[in-house]
Design goal:
941 residues; alpha+beta; OB fold (Dihydrolipoamide Acetyltransferase, E2P); 5 domains; eight-stranded antiparallel beta sheet; eight-stranded mixed beta sheet; 28% strand; globular; disordered N terminus
């Protein structure tokens, strides 16, 4: 067994015992202290914290001091012939990664017959490891002092240590290598790495992406480099000849979820392994967005504090020539938007030749910046083996909430064990049931705040329950905002919401951060999901109430309360709602239903088995019932969540324009509800739907919301049906319940029954898959409680007729006896006017072939009249424009506009570009105006 020690010095430093002055136990003694500190060899495993401020505090040197000024009984110092038992004076915590055993050795022989002991739970902490400390656990330590009859002057040394169990540290003994390593790393918006002459040799690749990752040319310029088939994509590399280490993105920026990933540990290990001194420069002289300090772009404040705690000094620099000639042992250079001069490259070369470490960090080509070119010019000037690819790495399976944030466990611990050694990192352990006092560091926008915890950790908080408009109009979805369809208006209110938030939650103010048990601690990109309380109340709700945000329809416990705040703001036209006009929303997509698609489809059955044909308006092409109607109970059951917006082209889906899901669902609602029933459509979001891929909350059906809005029908979420908050069911025409992970309580069922008995329609939606099995059971239970015999059935697939895969069958197999397939209204007036409706049919912005010649967008006429396109203008977000000539498109027909060159035909036309593509792979908007200047299409993706 190996033991590591922590020394507790009495009245002195932690390095040894301190003198106890004459009269130490005399009642006249005013004060005696014991200074407690962690020895270097165990500082990474244990922490000490004062518990009783009468006896323990942290002194000016940062050490824990035990003070015996006034002891129990009101006296000062310690009297003779007395035993003093002081419980829970300080706390010992295991902040390592293995279970530990705690022991104490006390050398107090020079004090005569006086004695000192440490206790845990009243039991003496002896020389053998008898107290177990699990990972993250802590114990309270007390002090027992027996002053004896004849205490003498002398010294006391108490050794607090750990041992027993699997506690070997990496590299503790000479010649030992690490035995424990970090588990996983994250690479958020990363490029991959190359060699000067192609693919990096295997021994230079320290981290590769998982096999599920792929390289994409996100900016569409065709300037990325492809990799051999099945070759891993390098994300971190070590130059085999120069002290150069490279990463595909800024590897330890503040918004990384430290604790879940070991990025900060690896970067610190790189410094430990290769830095020539403990001074690290951080280049900020070349237009970097990813700077060192917080508040200047994406900072590295957390890593800076972490490195300084581990003995490093990090300094920002804009003068490479001067600062590199000093005492620096390393320099970090993140993606530079300005190039390096020849003299700067020479200075960096001399620095590397002298043993100085150069850390280079790229970023993905998402927005076609020129950082990669600048970084490659620098690498070339250094004669480094490493180069950077002008690409983006995505991974649909292994990621941190989005495919552009791939994660990897493919770490070369055999070649680079020291770089991946597990060590104490920045992981912040939070209890979602607790509240935390935090300091506001910065406010990015209306729903994003950076805060600093007591221990110095800076975290990004996505404030829960609301969504403020994006400050960049191109990033906004108008469909989510009732009565607003202008992205520029939303961009304006995004700036206003930011100003509001910065005033309401000012930098430097201490606020209370809490969490919601339904939401979890973290969301996408590792951000905390929090509620912020200020002196003026709950910021999250105030932002909504004052009209600077909408309710974000999630499983939040306060959702319905927040919705009431939004409803009041909308009714009174506060903030952004002053620009909302639901009555002006045009009718779009309202046409006869020719075809439907059913996402994640199951069949519809009854409690007794098969369902009668006269209750089935829609079947699959193979004859499986996909919709069932129980008119007697005002209940219908869908085989899948028909209004799922994930299939919309604007959401990177395959596109839904040919399908009449919204029209059919609106007709079904009216057919199932009582004659003449009006009011809103409510969708359930309080039973786990928001967090389930197979179910919907209102947040997942914004396009259906916009469709209903064209008929002045409101669409809102409600989470709890047995209270008076949120949307009033009594005023609704329909309730939609998609596969609920959580069952309904009896009071909720009663409320839904009352709604149904009053003539409201209840639309239930199933979902296939083993992961939705319990949700289907809950859906069937609700149907039974409502007195309906409708039940969910087996999965339905179709290999030939589907949208995006066999699990989502398409069908034209309708029963015309049901009045569900006509346009809901009188048809819409988009496109060329009257009953004409022009829409995006398909957009290929990243073709597999030539990025210009093979790029295209096609339009479909969904109306009943031919559209004369002569004079129609197509343009993008930066005003590249194309004007149609004398060409038209018949009802149901399509016309395709290719970006490249060619000869126009009746159904194919060419923009005529030869230099670069039009439609940005990273996202863009297709605008179409008719000759009168009226915007008839606005399609963002």
């Amino acid at each position: 067994m190996k033991r590591r020690s922590v020394l507790i010095g009495i009245g002195a430093t932690a390095a040894g015992g301190g003198a106890i002055a004459t009269g130490a136990f005399d009642t006249a003694t005013a004060e005696r202290t014991a200074t407690v500190a962690l020895a270097d060899d165990a500082s990474s495993l244990l922490s000490l914290t004062p518990l009783d401020d009468e006896y323990a505090f942290v002194d000016d040197d940062g050490e824990l001091a035990l003070v015996f000024d006034e002891v129990e009984g009101g006296g000062t110092g310690f009297g003779s012939n007395t035993v003093y038992e002081i419980g829970e004076v300080f706390q010992v915590s295991n902040q390592g990664t293995e279970d530990l055993g705690l022991f104490a050795e006390v050398e107090d022989g020079s004090l005569g017959d006086a004695s000192f002991e440490l206790t845990v739970d009243g039991e003496t902490l002896g020389p053998d490891p008898t107290v177990e400390l699990g990972v993250g656990e802590a114990v309270a330590v007390g002090v027992e002092i027996d002053s004896g009859e004849d205490p003498t002057d002398g010294e006391v040394a108490i050794t607090l240590g750990i041992g027993d169990g699997p506690i070997e540290d990496p590299g503790d003994e000479p010649g030992e290598g690490p035995t424990e390593f970090v588990d996983e790393l994250v690479f958020d918006s990363t490029a991959s790495l190359l060699a000067a002459d192609g693919y990096l040799p295997e021994d230079a690749v320290a981290v590769a992406a998982e096999p599920t990752a792929e390289s994409v040319d996100e900016d569409g310029n065709g300037d990325d480099t492809s990799y051999p088939d099945d070759a891993p994509l390098p994300l971190m590399a070590v130059d085999q000849e120069l002290p150069v280490v490279a990463f595909g993105f800024p590897f330890a920026k503040d918004d990384i979820q430290f604790g879940s990933y070991g990025n900060e540990e690896v970067l610190l290990n790189v410094l430990d392994k290769y830095a020539a001194s403990d001074t690290v420069l951080w280049d900020e002289g070349h237009g970097q967005f990813y700077t060192l300090g917080q508040g200047e772009g994406d900072g590295h404040n957390n890593f800076e504090s972490y490195a300084e705690e581990n003995g490093y000094t990090l300094e920002a620099t804009t003068e490479l020539g001067t600062d590199l000639s000093g005492s620096a042992g390393a320099i970090v250079i993140t993606s530079p938007s300005e190039s390096f001069s020849g003299s700067e490259i020479d200075a960096l070369s001399m620095f590397a030749d002298a043993g100085g470490l150069i850390v280079l960090m790229d970023q993905s080509d998402y927005s076609d910046y020129d950082e990669t070119d600048n970084l490659n010019a620098l690498a070339n000037g250094l004669d480094s083996q490493i180069r950077f690819n002008d690409n983006q790495v995505i991974d649909d399976e292994n990621n941190d909430g989005a495919n552009f944030a791939p994660t990897s466990t493919d770490l070369d611990t055999e070649s680079y064990p020291e770089l991946f050694a597990d060590r104490d990192g920045l992981g912040l352990e939070l209890d979602p049931s607790e509240e935390y006092e935090v300091e506001v560091v910065s406010v990015t926008d209306g729903d994003t705040v950076d805060v600093q915890f007591e221990g110095g950790q800076v975290e990004t908080v996505r404030t829960l329950g609301h969504d403020a408009p994006e400050t960049q109009a191109a990033n906004e979805r108008p469909e989510e905002w009732e009565g607003i369809d202008d992205v520029d208006t939303l961009g304006f209110w995004g700036d206003e919401a930011t100003d509001y938030a910065q005033d309401a939650v000012p930098v430097g103010e201490t606020v209370t951060l809490s969490f919601d048990e339904n939401e979890g601690l973290r969301g996408n990109f590792g951000r905390l999901l929090g509620l912020i309380e200020t002196d003026d109340g709950l910021f999250n709700e105030n932002l909504i109430a004052d009209g600077y945000a909408r309710v974000y329809d999630s499983g939040l416990g306060l959702h319905d309360q927040f919705w009431e705040a939004e409803a009041d703001a909308r009714e009174n036209g506060r903030g952004l709602w002053a620009d909302s006009d639901v009555t002006a929303t045009p009718v779009v997509g309202d046409a006869p239903v020719d075809e439907l698609f059913v996402p994640s489809a199951t069949a519809v059955a009854t409690a007794d088995g098969d369902i009668a044909d006269d209750r089935v308006p829609v079947e699959s092409e193979g004859g499986d019932p996909l919709v069932g109607v129980d008119a007697d109970s005002n209940v219908a059951l869908l085989g899948g969540p028909l209004p799922d917006e994930n299939f919309e082209g604007g959401e990177d889906g395959p596109g839904t324009d040919p399908y009449g899901n919204y029209v059919f669902l609106a007709n079904l609602i009216d057919a199932v509800s009582a004659d003449g029933r009006e009011g809103s459509v409510v969708i359930d979001g309080g039973h786990g739907q928001f967090a389930a891929d197979y179910a919907l909350s209102a947040e997942d059906a914004a396009y259906f919301q916009r469709y209903l809005e064209g008929f002045a029908i409101e669409f809102d979420g409600k989470n709890d049906f047995d209270d008076d908050l949120g949307r009033d069911l009594a005023e609704a025409r329909a309730l939609i319940v998609t596969a609920p992970d959580d069952g309904f309580g009896s009071d909720e069922v009663t409320a839904i029954e009352d709604f149904r008995d009053d003539g409201g329609a209840v639309i239930l939606a199933s979902a296939a898959g083993d992961d939705a099995s319990d949700a289907r059971d809950n859906l069937d239970a609700l149907a039974a409680d409502l007195g309906s015999d409708l039940r969910t059935g087996d999965a339905v697939t179709d290999d030939q007729n589907n949208l995006g895969g066999p699990a989502n069958p398409t069908t034209t197999n309708f029963d015309a006896d049901f009045d569900l397939f006509d346009a809901y209204g009188d048809g819409d007036d988009g496109g060329g006017g009257g009953d004409v409706y022009l829409a995006i049919d398909e957009l290929v912005e990243a073709p597999s072939g030539d990025p210009v010649q093979d790029e295209y967008v096609s339009f479909v006429n969904q109306g009943a009249e031919t559209v004369d396109l002569d004079g129609y203008v197509v343009y993008d977000e930066v005003d590249n424009s194309y004007t149609f000539g004398a060409v038209s498109v018949d009802p149901g027909a399509t016309i395709t506009l290719y970006t490249g060159t060619g000869t126009d035909t009746d159904d194919t036309v060419y923009w005529g570009r030869t230099g670069s593509a039009i439609w940005n792979n990273g996202g863009d908007t297709v605008y179409v105006e008719n000759p009168d200047g009226t915007l008839v299409i606005e399609h963002s993706y």
